[in-house]
Fold this protein.
Amino acid sequence: MPHNNPYTKAAGAYGVTASATDPRALEGTILLKSAQKLEELAKRLQANEKIPQEEIGGTLDYNQKLWQLFVEDMMNPDHPLPQEIKNNIASLALFVFKRTQEILIETKPEKFTILVNINRNIAAGLMKKQPQTGLPQGQTAKSPAPPTSTDSLA
Protein backbone atom coordinates (compact mmCIF):
# COMPACT_ATOMS: atom_id res chain seq x y z
CA MET A 1 0.00 0.00 0.00
CA PRO A 2 1.66 3.26 -1.07
CA HIS A 3 1.82 6.05 1.48
CA ASN A 4 1.12 9.46 -0.03
CA ASN A 5 2.40 12.53 1.72
CA PRO A 6 1.83 15.88 -0.02
CA TYR A 7 4.89 17.36 1.67
CA THR A 8 7.08 14.61 0.28
CA LYS A 9 6.01 15.43 -3.26
CA ALA A 10 6.65 19.14 -2.75
CA ALA A 11 10.02 18.51 -1.12
CA GLY A 12 10.98 16.22 -3.98
CA ALA A 13 10.10 18.85 -6.57
CA TYR A 14 12.04 21.49 -4.67
CA GLY A 15 15.00 19.14 -4.26
CA VAL A 16 15.24 18.44 -7.97
CA THR A 17 15.10 22.15 -8.81
CA ALA A 18 17.55 23.18 -6.09
CA SER A 19 20.04 20.48 -6.94
CA ALA A 20 20.00 21.07 -10.69
CA THR A 21 23.00 23.40 -10.43
CA ASP A 22 24.72 22.03 -7.32
CA PRO A 23 26.15 18.48 -7.32
CA ARG A 24 26.41 18.48 -3.53
CA ALA A 25 22.74 19.39 -3.17
CA LEU A 26 21.86 16.66 -5.66
CA GLU A 27 23.76 14.09 -3.59
CA GLY A 28 22.04 15.37 -0.45
CA THR A 29 18.63 15.16 -2.10
CA ILE A 30 19.25 11.59 -3.23
CA LEU A 31 20.42 10.59 0.26
CA LEU A 32 17.27 12.13 1.73
CA LYS A 33 15.14 10.24 -0.77
CA SER A 34 16.80 6.99 0.25
CA ALA A 35 16.42 7.83 3.96
CA GLN A 36 12.73 8.46 3.40
CA LYS A 37 12.28 5.13 1.62
CA LEU A 38 14.11 3.31 4.41
CA GLU A 39 12.10 5.07 7.11
CA GLU A 40 8.77 4.34 5.41
CA LEU A 41 9.73 0.69 5.09
CA ALA A 42 10.69 0.52 8.78
CA LYS A 43 7.36 2.10 9.80
CA ARG A 44 5.44 -0.40 7.72
CA LEU A 45 7.39 -3.25 9.29
CA GLN A 46 6.76 -1.78 12.74
CA ALA A 47 3.02 -1.82 11.93
CA ASN A 48 3.39 -5.54 11.12
CA GLU A 49 2.58 -4.98 7.46
CA LYS A 50 3.53 -7.94 5.30
CA ILE A 51 6.13 -6.56 2.85
CA PRO A 52 7.49 -8.65 -0.01
CA GLN A 53 11.18 -9.48 0.32
CA GLU A 54 11.72 -8.01 -3.16
CA GLU A 55 10.54 -4.60 -1.93
CA ILE A 56 12.77 -4.75 1.14
CA GLY A 57 15.72 -5.85 -0.99
CA GLY A 58 15.03 -3.18 -3.60
CA THR A 59 14.96 -0.39 -1.03
CA LEU A 60 18.17 -1.60 0.60
CA ASP A 61 19.82 -2.10 -2.79
CA TYR A 62 19.01 1.49 -3.79
CA ASN A 63 20.72 2.80 -0.66
CA GLN A 64 23.69 0.48 -1.03
CA LYS A 65 24.23 1.59 -4.64
CA LEU A 66 24.37 5.22 -3.50
CA TRP A 67 27.06 4.37 -1.00
CA GLN A 68 28.91 2.32 -3.58
CA LEU A 69 29.05 5.42 -5.79
CA PHE A 70 30.50 7.42 -2.89
CA VAL A 71 33.20 4.78 -2.39
CA GLU A 72 34.05 4.76 -6.08
CA ASP A 73 34.28 8.56 -6.02
CA MET A 74 36.64 8.42 -3.02
CA MET A 75 38.88 5.95 -4.89
CA ASN A 76 39.54 8.58 -7.55
CA PRO A 77 43.10 9.84 -6.87
CA ASP A 78 42.16 13.24 -8.33
CA HIS A 79 39.32 13.77 -5.86
CA PRO A 80 40.09 16.97 -3.91
CA LEU A 81 39.16 15.73 -0.42
CA PRO A 82 41.99 14.90 1.98
CA GLN A 83 42.82 11.19 2.22
CA GLU A 84 41.64 11.03 5.85
CA ILE A 85 38.15 12.19 4.84
CA LYS A 86 38.10 9.76 1.92
CA ASN A 87 38.99 6.96 4.33
CA ASN A 88 36.23 8.03 6.74
CA ILE A 89 33.64 7.99 3.97
CA ALA A 90 34.82 4.56 2.85
CA SER A 91 34.60 3.28 6.43
CA LEU A 92 31.12 4.67 6.80
CA ALA A 93 30.13 2.98 3.53
CA LEU A 94 31.47 -0.35 4.82
CA PHE A 95 29.29 0.06 7.90
CA VAL A 96 26.27 0.75 5.65
CA PHE A 97 27.04 -2.39 3.60
CA LYS A 98 27.38 -4.51 6.76
CA ARG A 99 24.14 -3.19 8.26
CA THR A 100 22.36 -3.83 4.95
CA GLN A 101 23.41 -7.48 5.10
CA GLU A 102 22.28 -7.71 8.73
CA ILE A 103 18.86 -6.37 7.78
CA LEU A 104 18.54 -8.84 4.91
CA ILE A 105 19.41 -11.71 7.26
CA GLU A 106 17.07 -10.57 10.04
CA THR A 107 14.67 -7.83 8.98
CA LYS A 108 13.65 -5.77 12.01
CA PRO A 109 12.38 -2.17 11.84
CA GLU A 110 14.82 -0.87 14.46
CA LYS A 111 17.80 -1.94 12.32
CA PHE A 112 16.86 0.68 9.71
CA THR A 113 17.25 3.63 12.12
CA ILE A 114 21.01 3.96 11.82
CA LEU A 115 20.89 3.91 8.01
CA VAL A 116 18.21 6.62 8.01
CA ASN A 117 20.23 8.73 10.46
CA ILE A 118 23.49 8.35 8.52
CA ASN A 119 21.84 9.37 5.25
CA ARG A 120 20.12 12.37 6.81
CA ASN A 121 23.25 13.59 8.59
CA ILE A 122 25.42 13.29 5.50
CA ALA A 123 22.71 15.00 3.42
CA ALA A 124 22.51 17.84 5.93
CA GLY A 125 26.25 18.40 5.63
CA LEU A 126 26.12 18.33 1.85
CA MET A 127 23.24 20.79 1.72
CA LYS A 128 24.58 23.30 4.28
CA LYS A 129 24.62 26.85 2.95
CA GLN A 130 27.28 29.49 3.51
CA PRO A 131 25.75 32.40 5.43
CA GLN A 132 26.90 35.20 3.10
CA THR A 133 26.87 33.61 -0.35
CA GLY A 134 23.93 31.25 -0.10
CA LEU A 135 26.15 28.58 -1.66
CA PRO A 136 26.91 25.24 -0.01
CA GLN A 137 29.65 25.51 2.58
CA GLY A 138 33.09 25.32 0.99
CA GLN A 139 31.85 26.45 -2.42
CA THR A 140 32.56 29.82 -3.90
CA ALA A 141 31.02 31.40 -6.94
CA LYS A 142 34.24 30.75 -8.90
CA SER A 143 34.99 27.17 -7.88
CA PRO A 144 32.62 24.20 -7.72
CA ALA A 145 32.41 22.19 -4.51
CA PRO A 146 33.65 18.62 -4.43
CA PRO A 147 30.88 16.01 -4.38
CA THR A 148 31.34 15.36 -0.65
CA SER A 149 32.69 17.38 2.20
CA THR A 150 34.07 17.22 5.70
CA ASP A 151 30.80 18.81 6.84
CA SER A 152 29.03 15.57 6.03
CA LEU A 153 31.01 13.73 8.70
CA ALA A 154 30.11 16.08 11.53
Observations:
- Confidence is low (pLDDT under 50) at residues 130-154.
- DSSP finds five helices and no strands in the chain.
- Residues 85 and 150 are 7 Å apart (CA to CA).
